[in-house]
Amino acid sequence: MKKYIILAVNPGSTSTKIALYENESQLFEKTIRHSSEELAAYGDVASQFGFRKNLILEALAENGVDPAEINVVMGRGGLLRPIPSGVYRIGGETAPEAWGAVPTSPEDTWNTVVCDWNADGYRLPTESEWEYACRAGATTAYSTGDTISDNTGWYKTNSNRRTHEVGKKSANAYGLNDMYGNVWEWCWDWYGSYGNAARTDPLGASSGSRRVSRGGGWLGSAQYVRSAYRNDFNPSFRNNDLGFRLVRPQV
């Protein structure tokens, strides 16, 4: 593994906290205190930059660190405004706190959510991504063949009418557990017809009123947990056999 030396800086109102890391291992940390008399010499926070920088350099020198060996400097606070980020956007906003209360009934504003497919954050899988992960290279009804066994997933005949801790059944060939049963899993796509044309990595219908769910739940029989079985719910629907699985694409 390549070695990275990372300096983390957390400037507070009366202190500057620093920590030095080699990859994920902390080498040292220090809190540098600033008296009110020291800070009174500066008109605003921005003018404290040189003062605080010199104290950080002194702390590094005390610990035998050459600043030229540091690969990354990361900090908190400062003069920059927060950088917009996130996978989902509603009304032009990526911050969930700007979206308002989570609706409990159909809500037109939340239904306008768009996904940034170039972002590297966590999101719901598309329906095609979900089925690809579920099949794990198989073309049969289940990733294990044309019939399902008790060791493949939780469904009506073995669930005892309740959800179960994840990972208690065998993983598929891609190392994924609980693709069959336990809880239905939300997908990004609006529910709609596949169409006849062959497509690669489809994103589903462009609009709709119900979202796709896949995988079946603890209450359903074996036919409802097949790799190809499709279901759909209103986006505001909630139930004790409905959940989700997140993906994070490589971009």
Strand elements, count? 10
Alpha carbon gyration radius: 26 Å
The H/E string reads EEEHHEEEHEEEE
Q: How far apart are the termini?
A: 21 Å
Number of domains: 2
Beta-strand residue percentage: 15-25%
CATH class of the largest domain: Alpha Beta
CATH architecture title of the largest domain: Alpha-Beta Complex
Morphology: elongated
Considering DSSP H and I runs of 4 or more, what fraction of the residues is helical? Answer: 10-25%
Average pLDDT score: 90
Number of helical segments with 4 or more residues: 3
From the helix content, strand content and strand pairing, which structural class follows?
Answer: alpha+beta
CATH superfamily of the largest domain: paralog of FGE (formylglycine-generating enzyme)
**Largest sheet entry:** 4 strands, mixed
CATH topology descriptor of the largest domain: paralog of FGE (formylglycine-generating enzyme)
Written description of the protein model:
The protein is α+β, with helices and mostly antiparallel strands and 251 residues long. The chain folds into 2 domains: 5-75, Nucleotidyltransferase, domain 5 (2-Layer Sandwich), CATH 3.30.420.40; 121-251, paralog of FGE (formylglycine-generating enzyme) (Alpha-Beta Complex). Helices cover 11% and strands 20% of the residues. It has helices at 36-39, 49-62, 127-135; strands spanning 5-11, 15-22, 25-33, 72-75, 88-89, 114-115, 184-190, 211-214, 230-233, 242-243. The strands form 3 sheets. Strands 3-2-1-4 form a 4-stranded mixed sheet, with helices on one face. Strands 9-8-7-10 form a 4-stranded mixed sheet. The chain has a two-stranded antiparallel ribbon with strand order 5-6. The longest helix has 14 residues, at 49-62. It is elongated and about 75 Å long.
